[in-house]
Amino acid sequence: MSKDEAIAQLISVFRQYGYEGATLARLSKATGLGKASLYHYFPKGKEEMATAVLNHLSVWLEENILALLRGSGKPDERIRAMGKNVNQIYDQGEQACLLAMLSIGESHHLFHTQIQQVLNAWINALAQVLVEAGLETGEARLRAEDAILQIQGALVLARGLNDTTPFQRVLQRLPKDLLKP
Amino acid sequence: MSKDEAIAQLISVFRQYGYEGATLARLSKATGLGKASLYHYFPKGKEEMATAVLNHLSVWLEENILALLRGSGKPDERIRAMGKNVNQIYDQGEQACLLAMLSIGESHHLFHTQIQQVLNAWINALAQVLVEAGLETGEARLRAEDAILQIQGALVLARGLNDTTPFQRVLQRLPKDLLKP
DNA sequence: TATGGTGTACCGAACGTTTGGTACAAAACT
DNA sequence: AGTTTTGTACCAAACGTTCGGTACACCATA
Q1: Smallest Cβ distance to B115: which of A142, A152, A160?
Q2: What helix, strand, coil percent values describe chain A, rounded to 5?
Q3: Are A147 and A170 in contact (CB under 8 A)?
Q4: CA separation for the pair A14, B103 (Å, rounded)
Q5: CA-to-C1' span, B19 to D16 (A)
C-alpha cells in the first residue's frame, strides 16, 4: 500500500466520520496499515493525514473540475462535464463532502483557510464560465455560489432522507439553471 | 439548572461539534453541571442526551414552524413567517443544523429514523402550503424539498466561506421562488 | 413544633477503555 | 548491505460511565 493509495482510503474515513470521528483505529482498518505504518507516512499524525487528504482533494478539483471549466467547449458543455465528475466523486449522492465534514467542530479552525480556498476556487471557476456565457460578473458569482450551495444541500438532504433523488435532480437541472437568461 | 435549561445548552454543543465531538467534558462545561450530574437527568448517558435534544427540536419545529405553516394567512405570509423563525434558530446562518450534524458518522444509524421523520414533517407541511396555493402535489413536494435543501446548503456554505450572506439571500428569495407560477 | 424519613439535585474521585502518539527491533525490499 | 516498511509493546491523556456521598427542601408522624 503506497502513500497515495493510503490517502484514497483515508478520504473515505474522514468524509464519513469527520475529523473527530476519524479515529486512528478506523484509519488503520480502512488502509490496512498498522499505526506504525501510518506514522511512517504521516509523521505528524492525524492532522497531517487530514492535510494530505485535503491536498489530494485540491489536486483532484484542479484536474477534474477546474480544468474542465476552463476548457474550450460551449459553457453548457463545460458545466455538464463538471456535473458528471461531481456526480462521480459524491458517488451519486451517497457520499458526504469532505470539505463540509472538515469544516465542523474543532477541525474547523484547523483547516478553515484551505477549505475556504478550495471552495472559492471552485466558485470562481464556475462564475468565470458564466461570465463567458454573457452574464455580468456579480450575477455570475451569485449563481455559482448557488450551484455549490445546492450541491451541498442536496448531499445533506440525501443523508437525512436516505434518498439520493434530490441530488440527482439538482445535478440534472444545474446547466439550465445556471445559464438561463 | 433545570433539565430543560440544560437541554438548551446541550443543543449548542451537539450542533457545533456533532455527536462524536460532543464530549462529556464539553457538555459538562456548557451546562455548568458536573459530568456525574448530567447522569442524574440523563441516566443512559450521552445517547439519551442526544435523544432529548432531538425531541426538543422536534417540539420546537412543531410549535414554531409547522404550526405557522398550517396557519390561516395567505401562503406567501406563512412562508415568510417560517423564514423568520428559520433565520432565528440558525442565528442568521451562524449556527449549524442539528439534524445535519447528527446524521453523520456513527450517530447516523442511532438517530436516522427520528431525523428522517422531522425532515419529512417539515417538507410535508411546506408542500401542503404550496398545494393550497394552487400547485399540484408532485411539484409542491419537489419545491418543498428544494427549499430545505437550499437552507441546508446555505448553512454549509456559510461555514465554509465564513460568510452568511448566501444564507440571507436564500431566505430572502424563498417565498417568491416557492410560489412562482 | 420538633423529629425523622424521603426524594431531588449535585459533585469529586475513580472505574475500565480508547484516544493519539512513541520507541524499537524484526522483517522486507533494493 | 542499507534503506524502507511494519508488528509489537508501550505511554499519558482523554474518553464515557459509575460510585459513594453531601446538601437541602419537603412531608409525615409524634
Answers
A1: A160
A2: 80, 0, 20
A3: no
A4: 15
A5: 13
C-alpha cell at B134: 394552487
Which are the contacts of A37, defined by CB distance < 8 A and separation ≥ 6?
Answer: A1, A31
Q: Is residue B7 a contact partner of residue B52, using CB atoms and an 8 Å limit? A: yes
Which triple of cell numbers denotes residue B10? 446541550
Query: Whose CA is closest to A96, among B69, B100, B91?
Result: B100
What architecture is the A51-179 domain classified under in CATH?
Orthogonal Bundle (1.10)
Which amino acid is present at B169? Answer: R
**pLDDT single digits (tens) B128-181:** 999 999 999 999 999 999 999 999 999 999 999 999 999 999 999 999 999 998
Domain boundaries, chain A: 51-179
| CA–CA dist B20, A148 (Å, integer) | 27
**Residues A64-98: pLDDT tens digits?**
999 999 999 999 999 999 999 999 999 999 999 99
Instruction: Give Cβ neighbours of residue B61 (< 8 Å, ≥ 6 apart).
Output: B118, B121, B122
Any idea which nucleotide's C1' is nearest the CA of B20?
A: D15
Residues in chain B: 181
* Topology (CATH) of B53-179: Tetracycline Repressor; domain 2 (1.10.357)
pTM: 0.96
